[in-house]
Amino acid sequence: MNEQQPQPIPFESATPRGSSRGLRADARRNRQAVLHTAQRLFARKGLGVPLDEIARQAGVGPGTVHRHFPTKESLYLAVSIDQLEHLVSDAATLTATDDPAAVFTLLSRMMANGAENGAVKSALTAAEFDVRVVAPEIAVALTGHVADLLDRARAAALVRDDITVEEVMALVAGAFTAIHHADAQSSPPRATHIANVILDGLRPRP
Known about the structure:
With 206 residues, the protein is mainly α. 69% of the residues lie in helices and 0% in strands. Helix 5 (72-95) packs across helix 7 (118-126), helix 6 runs antiparallel to helix 9 (136-155) and helix 9 (136-155) crosses helix 10. The radius of gyration is 18 Å and the shape is globular. This is HTH tetR-type domain-containing protein.
């Protein structure tokens, strides 16, 4: 996989202008098209994909990409934040159901997302940039939904009594590392198997 060495991300270029709030509808659509295309190409081809190629496949001009994302690193960060926002939306939908096992559905999605976007996450880690610092409200919202779903599962005796939300979030982060270590990022069945082994550890002992 052709990955370029990430450079440190200046705070001013990394902060999510991030969100599409305040943009015109057409600019918002263009930005989302770039983010979705970048995420797909990064997952398939690595981080070395040229910005001009991302622009071409997103159906926008190179200037549009550079206007929204002045550096490649700011695009990495925006992709990661966009994926977190989608997970928060999924989590809110699951929280609104009465499924006691919904926490396992959400955690599976979080692990799959981490595996698919491993190259971007590795780049941000190498650049010593923490999405939780840049977009704390998103991280807090996601953790809050996990906590609510964990409480529901615990009340239904579907998870261990001695597990905390902090430990669950640590296990999710550890799953990313385990999947990467097993070189299973490009193999959804293997990544899912590793995730299921980890999730089984949350279930009550016989």
